[in-house]
Inverse folding.
């Protein structure tokens, strides 16, 4: 057989005459990206992603259709080539009528694959659901109780009836899995011989240990408290998050091999230098457990909200009296108010001569700006807590007889501030006095930074300075995340930071570049018009959201019994089946997305007319979404090679070109024999197997069988 010799990226290779430059490059192990290329089928060179530069030519050539020639000198990677490939991808994505991830998943700070775990729940496969959850989320039962559920705010059903009960579903999956056999433990790699010291056994530290142990790295968590859990244990009341439920999930981290050294304090029992000397890496997850001051004269007379909740969690019952005022509008403020009410009622007991307890929340902004769960506010009010918004403290002093006098001023909403909320502006002449037996300050939390500063760590306005993707600090081998970096924030963001840190620490320990988990290109639907929304909700029945039968008010007020018992097992499958399984069926395997990530393509670079979302669900094996077709011709060639009687073709002109069946026939007639093969070679999800992820009842029925 005649051979030709050519040079590719400075390396010589001999290939049979008639081979393409793409094939020659692959013979050398040089990967050239392709979209329209299907091995064994005639090349078309339509996507222009596989372009290369030939010596002596000014223009670029698609390597899949370029015959190798004797003496040819080829360059496969250069600044011009990468720019051309990037532009080709951006043009393909400019009118892509699809989305990579479901909107709920994009709204989750932990990047939980929500449709991925909900579908198994819909058919009663809880362990499969837990395997999906465990990829990205630790403590799913705890978070299912206390997370503000940003995912549900993004649920596509919000514009149709009611959001899916996502938090309740992953809570149920985790609880049932724990009850079955102690809980799912993900597989672990062989021991690496490396160790990581984690300072703080709260959500960020636990998440880091959970994922690092899976990579074979030994983890030891150091914490000043008696028990692990951080603010989940010491800052959230038992009626929201029972200690036994939290401990059961923390036990999974211990079963993976993590060690806990409790009751030891940074700066007293060890230093950062000690940890760096004794371990291969350090993760600082110290949390934000110092209350911000009230911010007015007499603030020292107030009780810290964080300290108050921590004392109650430790089994104490601080005396508060009958008139408690809580200043603040976050979850800590609402938790403190509801806890204070329970303790005050317990103090009063059955003695009618004792004054009836009154608990009053004061917040300086409007009710809509309260940074807490609205349902927690509603529960507090149902239990008897009074909520008064647009009120700010001016002065706190002790009056006659030891009572506290809190002078307040009414506020009005002003112009938006940096947070997007309207700035509170004092109303002149509105000062008034609120009498109180105790004032609890819950206006924010902050990180204790004195030690960090002395140990040489750089700081930010919020806490420790760390790279947002890798969580790396300015000290080699030292990483930080969660509230330690963000200030007082959500537990789900702390868990997400712990997982990001675990990825980066693993890279560091293995001597790889420390870049963290790389961000992938994320294509989202442009705003859908009414016709498109009608297609999305076609065949979707309106159905009410399933919710638990919450504990009645009198039983709530009587103690710390769990208020939300969770979904009834009989309601789980029905609620899970409400999921529309949004997102792309090929999100993980999409060649366009993968290459767009590699080349840093911007899906929004080119603006203009776009195709509309549509789905063809008429084929029994595959789903066709014409808005995702990149006109690569792969399915057309596969059908022709297989001898499909009708086959498929690229129909239409200009902007309207898309794959279709000749003579207006349905897709089932054009792809009778090779529907599966056509879906497999499709570089996007224009053609996708129903079994990759489906949103119709047929898929559920197939899995049930």
């Amino acid at each position: 057989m005649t051979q030709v010799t050519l040079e590719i990226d400075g390396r010589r290779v001999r290939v049979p005459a008639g081979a393409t430059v793409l094939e020659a490059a692959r013979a050398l192990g040089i990967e050239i990206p392709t979209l329209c290329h299907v091995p064994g089928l005639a090349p078309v060179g339509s996507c222009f992603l596989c372009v290369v530069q030939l010596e002596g030519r000014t223009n670029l050539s698609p390597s899949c259709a370029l015959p190798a020639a004797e003496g040819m000198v080829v360059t496969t990677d250069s600044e011009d080539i990468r720019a051309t490939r990037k532009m080709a991808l951006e043009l393909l994505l400019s009118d892509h009528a699809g989305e990579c991830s479901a909107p709920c998943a994009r709204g989750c700070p932990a990047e939980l694959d929500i449709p991925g775990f909900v579908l198994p729940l819909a058919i009663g496969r809880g362990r499969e659901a837990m395997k999906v959850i465990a990829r990205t989320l630790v403590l799913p039962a705890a978070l299912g109780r206390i997370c503000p559920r940003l995912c549900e705010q993004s649920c596509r059903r919000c514009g149709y009836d009611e959001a899916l009960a996502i938090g309740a579903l992953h809570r149920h999956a985790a609880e049932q899995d724990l009850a079955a056999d102690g809980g799912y433990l993900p597989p672990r790699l062989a021991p690496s011989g490396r160790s990581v010291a984690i300072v703080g056994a709260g959500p960020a530290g636990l998440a880091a240990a959970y994922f690092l142990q899976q990579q074979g790295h030994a983890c030891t968590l150091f914490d000043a408290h008696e028990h692990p859990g951080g603010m989940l244990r010491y800052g959230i009341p038992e009626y929201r998050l029972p200690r036994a439920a939290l401990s059961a999930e923390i036990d999974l981290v211990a079963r993976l091999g993590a060690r806990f050294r409790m009751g030891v304090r940074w700066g007293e029992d060890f230093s950062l230098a000690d940890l760096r000397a004794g371990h291969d890496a350090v993760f600082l997850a110290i949390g934000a457990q110092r209350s911000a001051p009230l911010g007015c004269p007499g603030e020292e007379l107030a009780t810290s909200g964080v300290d108050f909740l921590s004392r109650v969690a430790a089994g104490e019952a601080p005396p508060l009296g009958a008139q408690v005022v809580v200043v603040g509008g976050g979850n800590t403020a609402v938790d403190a108010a509801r806890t204070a009410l329970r303790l005050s009622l317990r103090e009063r007991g059955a003695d009618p001569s004792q004054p009836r307890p009154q608990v009053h929340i004061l917040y300086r902004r409007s009710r809509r700006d309260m940074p807490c769960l609205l349902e927690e506010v509603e529960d507090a009010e149902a239990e008897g807590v009074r909520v008064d918004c647009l009120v700010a403290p001016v002065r706190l002093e002790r009056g006659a007889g030891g009572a506290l006098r809190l002078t307040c001023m009414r506020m009005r909403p002003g112009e938006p501030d940096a947070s997007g909320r309207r700035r509170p502006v004092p109303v002149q002449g509105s000062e008034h006095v609120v009498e109180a037996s105790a004032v609890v300050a819950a206006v924010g939390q902050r990180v204790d930074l004195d030690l960090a500063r002395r140990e040489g760590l750089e700081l930010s306005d919020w806490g420790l300075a760390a790279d947002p993707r890798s969580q790396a600090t300015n000290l080699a081998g030292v990483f930080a995340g969660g509230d330690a970096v963000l200030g007082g924030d959500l537990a789900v963001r702390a868990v997400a930071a712990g997982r990001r840190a675990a990825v980066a620490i693993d890279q560091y320990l293995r001597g790889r570049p420390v870049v963290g988990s790389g961000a992938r290109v994320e294509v989202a639907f442009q705003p859908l018009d009414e016709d498109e929304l009608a297609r999305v909700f076609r065949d979707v029945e309106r159905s009410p959201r399933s919710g638990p039968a919450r504990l009645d008010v009198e039983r709530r007020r009587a103690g710390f019994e769990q208020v939300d018992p969770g979904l009834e097992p009989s309601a789980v499958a029905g609620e899970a089946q409400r999921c529309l399984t949004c997102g792309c069926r090929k999100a993980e395997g999409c060649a366009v997305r993968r290459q767009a990530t590699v080349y840093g393509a911007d899906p929004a670079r080119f603006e203009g007319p776009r195709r509309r979302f549509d789905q063809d669900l008429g084929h029994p094996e595959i789903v066709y979404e014409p808005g995702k077709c990149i006109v690569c011709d792969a399915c057309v060639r596969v059908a022709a090679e297989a001898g499909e009687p009708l086959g498929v073709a690229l129909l239409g002109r200009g902007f309207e070109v898309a794959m279709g069946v000749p003579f207006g026939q349905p897709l089932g007639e054009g792809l009778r024999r090779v529907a599966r093969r056509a879906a497999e070679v499709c570089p996007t999800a224009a053609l996708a197997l129903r079994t990759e992820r489906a949103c119709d009842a047929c898929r559920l029925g197939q899995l049930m069988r």
Q: What stands out?
A: Residues 153 and 649 are 41 Å apart (CA to CA). The chain has five domains: 3-77, 103-184+525-576, 195-288+447-509, 292-444, 601-704. The domain at 103-184+525-576 is CATH 1.10.1060.10 (Fumarate Reductase Iron-sulfur Protein; Chain B, domain 2).
